[in-house]
Amino acid sequence: MNRTTLSLLAGTAALAAVTAFAAFDAPSASGTAAPGTAAQLPVERTGLLCPAPSMSDIADTAYTSFTPVTKGAARSGEARMRPATGQSADGTEGGKGGKGAGKKTDEPLLAPKAPGTPSTGETSGAETPALIGTADGGFAPGWTVQETTEVAAGTGRGLLGVNCTGADTEFWFPGASTATGRTDYVHLTNPDDSAAVVDIELYGKDGAIKSPLGENLTVKPHASEPILLSTLTDERQDDVTVHVGVRSGRVAAAVQALDDKSGGDWLAAAADPAGSLVLPGIPKDATDVRLIAFAPGDDDADLKIRLASPDGLITPAGNETAHVKSGMTTTVDLGDVTRGEAGSLVLTPTDQAVPVVAALRVVRGKGDKQETAFIPAAAAVGARATSADNSAKGTTLALTAPGGTATVKVTASAGSEGGTPAAKTFTIKSGTTQDVDAPVPAGLKGTYALTVEPVSGGPVYASRTLAATEGGVPAFTIQTLPNDHGTVAVPRTEQDLSVLQR
Question: Fewer Cβ in 10 A, N or C end of the chain?
Answer without folding.
Answer: C
